[in-house]
Amino acid sequence: MSWISVTSLPIPLSSSSSSSFPHLTKHRKPKRHHLCKVSCHTNHDVPNEEPKASHNRRNVLIGFGGLYGASTLADNPFAIALPTSPDIKSCGLPKLPADVECTNCCPPQSSTIIDFTLPPTRRTPRVRYAAQLMDDTNIAKYKEALCKMRALPPDDPRSFIQQANIHCAYCNDAYHQAGFPKIDYQVHKSWLFFPFHRMYLYFYERILGSLINDPDFSIPYWNWDNPYGGMVIPSIFTDTNSPLYDPRRNIYHQPPTLVNLDYNKNDQVCLNPKQQISNNLATMYKSVVSSGTPSLFLGTSYRGGGEPGCPGSLERVPHTPVHVWAGDTRQPHLEDLGVFYSAARDPLFYAHHANVDRMWNIWRTLPGKKRVNFKDNDWLTSSFYFYDENKNLVRVTVKDSLDTTKLGYVYQGVETPWLDQRPKPRNPIPIAKAKKSFGEATSVTFPLTLNSKVSSVVKRPKVSRSEEEKEEEEEVLVIDGIEFDMEKDLKFDVFINDDDEKEINPTNTEFAGSFVSVPHTHMHRNKKAKSCLKLAMTELLEDLEAEDDDTIVVSNHGFMPPGQC
Fold first, then answer.
1. Binding-site residues from annotation
2. Where does Cu cation B bind (predicted)?
3. What's the rounded mean pLDDT across residues 208-217?
């Protein structure tokens, strides 16, 4: 049975403990979010069998539920307060696709674990350069360091294969949660995504520097958000004679092909460079600028004994589409970058994630008092394990990852033209017209299979909010209970008040965002994954002149036709 209702549940918003950024004080009002929640079926609604569909369709079950107010988006106020960590003593075989050779991704065992300590303060931080701007000296250093890393014995935790296996183990269910032996441990689709990958790259970089005795060594970042030479695979990774090269990449996406930051590998529409750049800049704006709260940008909570919730905006897009875009379509699962277990076997992975890491820094510096890190202790004390340059197994916590200058590095400053590329409405329409266009959508039965366009009128929690209210609270659209086959790549887009008369793209306000998933295998084969999608609405509704409307029209567009662009 589907239903729509309105409730309010105010909870204080978590903020950063960093003194260099704004944070809440006891004199401020607690911040909340207004959530337009498009929720899913309850357990008794779930069908026993997946509806039949053609081979090239990706079935997504959704349903409509309630609207309610909340603050930290996915935090359950009744959940057990407990940080998460992997149980490294019981690391097992990863869960890989059935046709992939069994691989042990577990790191070598160590009888000693040391706690992480920040490196000595550097007078001049190491600089991670944009890959397209690296000079010959730094390119040569990276090649030398990676060559030496590749030459290490495979059982050396510093070797390239062991470094690549870190991603395989953490992302393909080789670990269970510490204290919960029947529950898998994951670092995607939650607030762990940014801290884990930051510290992963930190140790990777230190190992490389130690191999060439260069304490100033730094890895580059793939500057895919920059149209001035950054939106192609950097040339240092395309030299077939270089240790930075990986042959398992999409042959159609080699330079000078521009990256599509909102890529859907089944979309047959090929864009000209000007339109692709415009789409990319608008995509960046939506993912970073529009997502002005920690839960929207960093992802929702993931506590001990629980499962990941909703991925943050940047993890969804462009992080995931870039993975899929670079993966080799000649391989059964888009190896290497296009699937979790093999992604880090491509050196381009580390440059890709360096730019992801850079986005966390940029997000923190943008205007808006809600752009702060969580101060939730379960987040701050969640932990990971990595081997350092001296082969020591090190336990790090999220709180160790919060300041890159304390970690000893900064990013080279480059232009960020997407900061002012706020999407514009293609055709603002009165909500009455939208209701008329999509009135029939309100009578559909849920759950349903998303293999075509689905629309519904959704009631908003509050209309005509003041500027002060909008500053204190973000209105958020939630699509909950998304079920999908996690071994298949998946993408669908969400439009708001779409008149369905012309094509909508990321440069248009009506394009609210996308749900994207990188293929990976679960310990319970044939089990569907569940996730959710959260999209910021405040700015979008302003631009659509819909702030006074008590409902919006939400359209989910699933794109499934085969193609290659």
1. 167, 188, 197, 319, 323, 353
2. 319, 323, 353
3. 98
Q: How far apart are CA 9 and CA 137, in angstroms?
A: 56
CA distance 8 to 461: 9
Burial class (CB in 10 A: 0-12, 13-18, 19+), 108: exposed
* Crossing angle for the helix pair 348-365 and 193-211, to the nearest 10 degrees: 130
Residues placed in the known binding site for Cu cation: 167, 188, 197, 319, 323, 353
Which of 285, 407, 422, 307 is closest to 357 using CA atoms? Answer: 407
Residue 426 CB neighbour total at 10 angstroms: 18
> What is d(CA 486, CA 322) in angstroms, rounded to the nearest whole number?
18
CATH number of 92-255+312-358+384-420: 1.10.1280.10
Residues annotated as catalytic (active site), given as ranges: 167, 188, 197, 319, 323, 340, 353
Tell me the C-alpha distance between 541 and 509, whole Å.
9
What secondary structure does DSSP assign to 261-286, as a single string? TT--TT------HHHHHHHHHHHHII
- Give the model confidence (pLDDT) of 167-195 as tens digits: 999 999 999 999 999 999 999 999 999 99
Q: Are 519 and 98 in contact (CB under 8 A)?
A: no
CA–CA separation, 286 and 505 (whole Å): 12
Give the pair of three-digit tokens for residue 305.
Answer: 């004994």
* pLDDT tens digits along 297-320: 999 999 999 999 899 999 999 999
CA distances from 453 to 15, 210, 371, 490, 559 (A): 38, 53, 34, 15, 9
Paired strand residues for 114: 394
Residue 238, Cβ neighbours under 10 Å: how many? Answer: 16
